[in-house]
Specification:
This protein has 164 residues and is mainly alpha-helical. Among the domains are: 47 residues; 59 residues, Orthogonal Bundle (Arc Repressor Mutant, subunit A), CATH 1.10.10. Helix content is 73%, strand content 0%. It contains nine helices and no strands. Helix 3 crosses helix 5, helix 6 crosses helix 8 and helix 6 packs across helix 9. The longest helix is centred in the N-terminal third of the chain and has 19 residues. The model has no long low-confidence stretch (mean pLDDT 84).
């Protein structure tokens, strides 16, 4: 397996155990959803065949740190100190690799995760906003409108329409 896909292996193992035990209900659906999200995350960031530079490795590492826990604030100063770089150096390396700032990357990943949660759960908009690191449901609503020109209600309605 590719480096960084330990979660994919663990989720696959847990799905196997749930299926083998014959459990039904929400347990399988929860693991299935998590497995799909991890697989999508890994496929969105394929392994590059070109030789990676130290700069691109730092940027990729920061991207993994951001994606690992979207509910946490971006600890760019701590990341930079841990890698003996300045905050500005890390921002420049990341922007050169991904074309956006680390904060914009985190916001985009949070919005993607929130959209997924809206389409797969019945949690409130506030609860979903808090799961992805925002304290306000109205802020999530503004982000959805700005990013996809959709409301939470429209995302959920589209999901129900696809199921029917």
């Amino acid at each position: 397996m590719r480096a960084g896909s330990a979660a994919l292996g663990a989720l696959s193992q847990k799905m196997f155990e749930v299926a083998h035990a014959g459990e039904t209900g929400d347990t399988g659906a929860v693991y299935s959803g998590a497995l799909i999200m991890e697989a999508a995350r890994l496929s969105a960031n394929p392994i590059r065949q070109a030789r990676q530079t130290p700069a691109s490795m730092i940027a990729a590492l920061l991207a993994e740190v951001i994606e690992a826990d979207l509910s946490q604030p971006l600890a760019l100063d701590a990341f930079a100190a841990r890698h003996q770089l300045s905050r500005r150096q890390v921002e420049r390396l990341f922007s050169a690799e991904f074309g956006i700032s680390p904060l914009a990357f985190q916001q985009l990943k949070r919005a993607d995760r929130a959209r997924y949660l809206l389409s797969t759960s019945s949690d409130s908009v506030l609860a979903i906003a808090q799961q992805v690191g925002w304290q306000s449901g109205s802020y999530l609503a503004r982000v959805l409108e700005k990013t996809w020109a959709l409301t939470a209600t429209e995302i959920r309605a589209a999901t129900r329409a696809r199921r029917d």
